[in-house]
């Protein structure tokens, strides 16, 4: 926007003088409120991300932005609340244009938060209602994507070395973890969630993005979740995502489990983050008040359910791709083959790690799966040998048997090094 560009060029004094005017004009109506939010967002992004000038000029501008945090964040959160409620009222009164204008303000306000949360002090983000507001809008289909973008930026923050910010970091990420846990569970509870998370569903893209943010959170901030109980709740939700038949969604969810296995010490890999086994949040407790700092990262029953879910996924994956039906999300058979190969390789790593963490339940489940796959392959071959089936039926039965054997081999290869 021109106003934002002029404000940036004229310097920090102009921004400091303009800010009260933007806040005042926002009260005049939704259009003015939207413009105010967009100016704040663009100035913040331009200075912190794109401004090439350095020296005293940039330091002064950054100081002006930092000073604006105490004013901007409460203002934006208040805009979110008032305009969302006003939009609902307008819609109920059959005023679609007014509802659209208020919705535009909500989107612009979330964009402003996105421009500020990357660099605002963690203490201010923690004590304000920023995460709470985003958590609410994660449950609103029209605004969940921009709200998730804000949460993703917060997840990208690294722990501060400033002693005053350490506690704020823990509190902030605890709120984010709770928000993601709630959002993951709520998405699984929507009507027809299985279909809505599939390729033609309205939540397909959002579901993949949400799982990606959860995976990033686990990679950097898992130990900061508010309780062991919340950790286990999120693990249960992610089990459901990795079991989903939509392979792109399951693959993103599988990356979460790869991270968790590494954090549990079952997969080698460099890590300079605080281990969830030795959480800095020493006061973290589960629902019964038991200290969670030394709690198991992934319970044995969770490892068993994870491997069972991966086994079911492997059964769905084709062995030959020349005559396989290419799903709508894949551009070609080659693209589909690559996606299947990626999932299989990641599944082997995660299965091997799960067997290290919980050998008895995991190996018991794999043994039962091996027997089931052999029975399926035998039945498939016997049916194919019969005279009844047509050529197409014959191919389908043979393919089913091949897929079962391939899944059995993959799981067996995964656990043999652990035995």
List keywords for this structure.
single chain; 419 residues; mainly alpha; 17 helices; 73% helix; elongated
Word description of this protein:
Helix content is 73%, strand content 0%. The chain has helices at residues 2-10, 12-26, 30-50, 55-92, 96-117, 122-127, 130-137, 144-155, 163-188, 193-196, 204-221, 228-243, 247-263, 300-316, 333-357, 359-385, 391-415. Mean pLDDT is 86; it is low at 274-295. It is elongated, with a radius of gyration of 26 Å.
Give me the secondary-structure topology.
Elements: H1 2-10, H2 12-26, H3 30-50, H4 55-92, H5 96-117, H6 122-127, H7 130-137, H8 144-155, H9 163-188, H10 193-196, H11 204-221, H12 228-243, H13 247-263, H14 300-316, H15 333-357, H16 359-385, H17 391-415
Helix pairs in contact: 1-3, 2-3, 2-4, 3-4, 3-5, 4-5, 5-8, 7-8, 7-9, 8-11, 9-11, 9-12, 11-13, 12-13, 12-14, 13-15, 14-15, 14-16, 14-17, 15-16, 15-17, 16-17
Short description:
The chain is mostly helical. 73% of the residues lie in helices and 0% in strands.
Number of strand elements: 0
The description of the largest β-sheet is: none
Structural class: mainly alpha
Binned, the helix content reads over 70%
Number of helices: 17
Report the C-alpha radius of gyration, rounded: 26 Å
Basic shape:
elongated
The SSE string, one letter per element, is: HHHHHHHHHHHHHHHHH
Span of the ends, CA to CA: 63 Å
- Overall pLDDT level: 86
Fraction of residues in β-strands:
under 5%
- Which regions are unreliable across 5 or more consecutive residues at pLDDT < 50? 274-295
């Amino acid at each position: 926007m021109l106003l934002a560009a002029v404000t940036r060029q004229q310097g920090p004094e102009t921004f400091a003088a303009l800010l009260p005017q933007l806040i005042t004009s926002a009260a005049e109506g939704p259009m003015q409120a939207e413009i105010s939010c967009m100016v704040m967002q663009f100035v913040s992004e331009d200075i912190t991300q794109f401004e090439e000038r350095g020296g005293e000029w940039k330091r002064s501008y950054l100081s002006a932005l930092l000073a604006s945090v105490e004013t901007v964040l409460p203002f934006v959160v208040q805009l979110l609340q008032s305009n969302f409620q006003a939009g609902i009222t307008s819609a109920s009164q059959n005023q679609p244009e007014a509802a659209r204008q208020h919705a535009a303000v909500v989107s612009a306000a979330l964009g402003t938060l996105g421009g500020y949360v990357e660099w605002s002090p963690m203490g201010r983000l923690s004590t304000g209602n920023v995460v709470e507001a985003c958590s609410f809008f994660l449950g609103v289909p029209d605004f969940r994507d921009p709200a998730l973008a804000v949460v993703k930026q917060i997840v990208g923050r690294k722990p501060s070395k400033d002693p005053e910010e350490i506690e704020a970091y823990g509190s902030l990420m605890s709120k984010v973890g709770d928000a993601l846990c709630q959002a993951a569970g709520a998405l699984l509870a929507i009507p027809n969630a299985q279909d809505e998370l599939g390729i033609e569903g309205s939540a397909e893209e959002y579901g993949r993005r949400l799982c990606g943010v959860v995976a990033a959170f686990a990679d950097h901030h898992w130990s900061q979740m508010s309780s062991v109980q919340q950790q286990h709740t999120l693990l249960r939700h992610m089990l459901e995502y990795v079991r989903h038949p939509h392979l792109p969604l399951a693959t993103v969810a599988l990356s979460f489990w790869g991270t968790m296995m590494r954090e549990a010490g079952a997969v080698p890999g460099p890590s300079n983050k605080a281990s969830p086994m030795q959480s800095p949040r020493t006061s973290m407790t589960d629902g019964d008040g038991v200290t969670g700092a030394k709690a198991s990262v992934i319970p044995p029953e969770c490892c068993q359910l994870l491997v069972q879910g991966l086994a079911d996924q492997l059964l769905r994956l084709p062995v030959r791709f020349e005559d396989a039906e290419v799903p709508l999300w894949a551009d070609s058979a080659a693209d589909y083959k690559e996606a299947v190969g990626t999932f299989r390789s990641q599944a082997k790593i995660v299965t091997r790690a799960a067997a290290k963490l919980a050998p008895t339940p995991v190996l018991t489940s794999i043994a039962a799966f091996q027997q089931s796959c052999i029975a399926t392959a035998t039945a498939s071959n016997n049916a194919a040998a019969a005279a009844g089936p047509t050529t197409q039926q014959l191919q389908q039965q043979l393919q089913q048997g091949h897929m079962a054997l391939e899944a059995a081999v993959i799981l067996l290869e995964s656990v043999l090094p652990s035995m």
